[in-house]
Design a protein that fits this description.
This protein is mainly β and about 575 residues long.
Amino acid sequence: MYIRFVAICLVFVWGLGGCANVQPLTGGKKDTKPPVLLAFKSYPKFKSTNFKGDRIILYFNEWIKEEKLSQNLIITPSLKTYRSKVTKDRIEIRWEQPLDTNTTYTFNFRKGIVDITESNICLNPKWVFSTGPTIDTLGFSGQVRNLLTGAPVENALVALYIKDDTSKVDKDPPAYLSLTDATGIFTFENIRPDTYDIFAFVDKNNNQFYNEPELIAFRSHPIALRDSAYAEGIRLWLAPEDHTPPEIRRGQSKANLFEVSFEEGLRAFYIDSGKINNPDFTYRLNDKADGILFYNLQSSLNRDSIPVSIIAYDSAYNRTALETKIFFDPADLNKKEKFSLNLAQRTQIPIEQQLALDFKFNKPIKTWHPDKIKIQLDPTKALNQYGWAEQLALFATDKLPQTFPLWSDTTSLKGWNMGRNLLHIDSILAVKQKIEIIAEEGAFISVESDTSKYNSLLLELKEEKNYGSLAISLKINAPHFIVQLTDDKFNVKREVFNQSKIVFKYLPPATYLIRVIMDENQNKIWDGSDFKKDKHPEKILVHPQSYKIRENWDLSETIDFETIK
């Protein structure tokens, strides 16, 4: 009897073990339905009139949550402050300041309401009411694009300001605002009849007004909204503005030099210390182009500081003129940075057509010796890498690598930058093999009497078959224009002026675009806008087609810019 009881218990336990093998719950089908706004439960009623309350309460058919509501919710006309609160299936928006009288308010939540389970976005939740007896019904739509790329701009803020009002786009929130969607489209609805100035800008700091250097667009002519919707489709072209002159960030003495740093990069600068070729110092632009390095040329210091005048220009040609003082710390008189030379090819054009070299130094150069800069043909090994015995053997067998000077008065061009720390050398060569550029020891002497070390650059020959070409014939109705060949990220690779038939040779395999700038003032650069002066930027046309260049591939195209708007 006891044995049979134990057996029954074992069977029972084994059965429990089998039941313990529980399968995971599947949870059913994934929720893909967005929450639905329930108008019949919400407060106040949709498009209510004579509303005097301090909140709206919107109900949905399921539990919800906010999704970046401060970025997504657009209230027009603007409310300075509001508070939001989500409770299960409802959201409450509450404000304390009084609403404007006889005004239609629109709350556009865009993508700011999602369900609590799968974050499905509620489709276009919007609520409208009026503090007066009628609902305003006027509106219009348009598109915002980037002038430099031609691409539509998402989340650009489009602002309406009442004409002749004292509000300013760079100081005050707008009367009405909208945000563009992924295609750059914006829409205004429920606008009161009036005349409006319109602006668009990329509101990076979310303060609802323009701050330089945000991209901005504007119209010279206001929009008159009267008894019907504005029918004209509006297109706004965003472009950067920069009207702030460069400002000094700090001055700092270090390692026998003094650096004046600026808040932005400089295009050019001029120094006046009251002396021509001042023997106390020399100077150059730093490697980041956002500061001026002054080098001490004195063997001893006779005064604490040296007054200098600086005229500086930024990339937008904004000019600043300022007075400052530089000084060199006596403790740093014997400290010097290590002298360095960086040798690089400036362009990707094949070397059999043109050799373009940059010799870049970390200090200004006092003297240089062109005869110590040479070209070595077919360098399997640099000469200084051979041992003395190997060099003797090469001399004895007349197999020394062939070298000749890089610099030639008839086939070369040279140029120093203003700070004499960058030397350009362009040479015309006709070689069919790889070459090595050699800067022998002592080729350059710095202002601090440093002597350059041996330096070299090996250049592999790329034959013409390794490149492609693009021949274009432009249809364009403009007397003065700039044609730019860019890569697919709009970095300019080639540029020509006032030519409608162009052949771009020796193009590395890549995807290219063609962009045209209407050079109205014929200064061969693009000029931006100034909204305060109602000055629009020079027009830019980007052809929508891209051109894929392959090796040993010649492409010919006719491009019609007259049909692009």
